[in-house]
Specification:
Layout lengths: L14 E2 L2 H11 L6 E5 L5 H6 L5 E6 L5 H8 L5 E5 L17 E6 L5 H9 L5 E9 H7 L10 H9 E9 L4 E2 L6 E8 L10 H11 L7 H4 L6 H6 L13 H13 L1
Parallel strand pairs: 2-3, 2-5, 3-4, 5-6
Antiparallel strand pairs: 1-8, 6-9, 7-9
Helix pairs in contact: 4-6, 7-10
């Protein structure tokens, strides 16, 4: 779908236009009859066109009202298509889930809201089959990071608590109009049907992780001061003088469960 639309900086709009990249994303998602796709920020509909067919439900969430007329004109011929003119950061994705069919969420996420939007979408993980996103490469590196890596932090820990994370492939700036000043990448997040992690009080996990990484260069002793004492960390086999980036996800779960039991 081509329209005379000027990309808006305030919406973080960089429209994907490379046919090879679009085909690569569509092949990774490979929608099947009876599935329910949800696209965030369809923009001018380039990826929508590669994914939609008459045998699936397809909801799109688009904030820029100037794009909705073109989207409706292009895709209303499909019986399962519904457009929601809304802000994805405030949208109730649970309202879309019906009949026990899990959501398959896709999107070229605006870089300026990608991190808070990812945290919000993780809240709906039990309703989701998988998520495929175009993101800034740095954000994908954070999602897929391992302990001890400079990218390991709050985003990767919370994402990996809920999902298996796969960095699929990188996308160069020239695949977009206008070209962003950063490298991009496609990531797949697949929520666990059976979690590999011990049961955990998630509010406590969020609190521990946020506090532990509050100042990356400081030790756990400093960042967790007032939350957990040195002797409590030592009881759990964790060095109070260590930095948060050295801890495994399982360590944070143990800390969270200890905090919940207090």
């Amino acid at each position: 779908m081509k329209t005379a639309h000027t990309p808006r900086k305030r919406f973080g709009q960089n429209f994907l236009q490379d046919a090879g990249v679009i085909a690569g994303i569509a092949n990774a998602i490979h929608p099947q009859a009876g599935e329910h796709l949800v696209e965030i920020g369809p923009g001018q509909g380039a990826l929508t066109a590669a994914l939609i067919n008459r045998d699936i439900r397809f909801d799109v969430v688009e904030l820029d009202r100037d794009l909705t007329t073109g989207l409706l004109a292009a895709f209303s011929i499909y019986p399962g298509f519904t457009l929601h003119s809304a802000d994805a950061l405030a949208f109730d994705f649970a309202a879309l889930a019906r009949d026990g069919v899990p959501l398959r969420v896709v999107g070229n996420l605006p870089y300026n809201i990608s991190t808070p939007l990812l945290f919000r979408l993780l809240e709906f993980a039990p309703l989701v089959q998988d998520m495929h996103f175009m993101l800034q490469l740095e954000v994908v590196n954070r999602l897929a990071a391992a302990p001890g890596n400079k990218h390991w932090g709050r985003l990767g820990i919370m994402a990996q608590y809920h999902c298996a994370v796969e960095h699929l492939f990188d996308v160069p700036p020239e695949a977009f109009y206008p070209p962003p000043k950063v490298q991009s990448a496609i990531v797949r997040l697949t929520p666990y049907q059976q979690s590999p992690w011990p049961e955990c009080e998630e509010d406590s996990l969020r609190r521990i992780v946020q506090s532990a990484f509050a100042q990356r260069r400081k030790t756990l002793r400093n960042n967790l001061k007032g939350i957990l004492a040195d002797h409590e960390l030592e009881q759990l086999g964790i060095d109070p003088g260590a930095r948060a980036e050295t801890l495994e996800l399982l360590d944070f779960i143990r800390l969270a469960n200890h905090l919940s039991d207090e």
